[in-house]
Amino acid sequence: MRNYWYVSLSNRYPPPNEDDPLRVVQSVQIKKDYSIVEMTREATPEEIDKCKLVYCGHGYWKDDYIQQNIGRYLS
């Protein structure tokens, strides 16, 4: 399944909510200074601002452009 990938510069990610019964956040890779967040839908502007999310692309983890975009914000 193609998902939306984000880098969280604050180590926060969107919590589950009652309005959206599907699990939105599929996985989170937590590191010391950032987190990589995999979501099933695009983040809302409120989630982007609150969690300091940076969009890295829509696709599979192994896609080159996803890796390049994630690497751009981690270096």
Q: List low-confidence stretches.
A: none
Strand-pairing-aware structural class = alpha+beta
Overall 3D shape: globular
Number of domains: 1
How large, in whole angstroms, is the Cα Rg? 12 Å
Main beta-sheet annotation: 4 strands, antiparallel
Strand order of the biggest β-sheet: 2-3-1-4
Overall number of strands: 4
How far is the first residue's CA from the last residue's CA?
A: 28 Å
Order of helices and strands: EEEHEH
Strand content: 25-35%
Whole-number mean pLDDT: 89
Helix content: 10-25%
Query: Count of helical segments?
Result: 2
How would you summarize what this structure contains?
The protein is α+β, with helices and mostly antiparallel strands and 75 residues long. It has one domain.
List the helices and strands and how they pair.
Elements: E1 3-8, E2 25-30, E3 35-39, H1 45-51, E4 53-59, H2 64-74
Antiparallel strand pairs: 1-3, 1-4, 2-3
How would you characterize this protein structure?
- The protein is α+β, with helices and mostly antiparallel strands and 75 residues long.
- It has one domain.
- Helix content is 24%, strand content 32%.
- It has a four-stranded antiparallel sheet with strand order 2-3-1-4.
- Strand 2 and strand 3 form a beta hairpin.
- The model has no long low-confidence stretch (mean pLDDT 89).
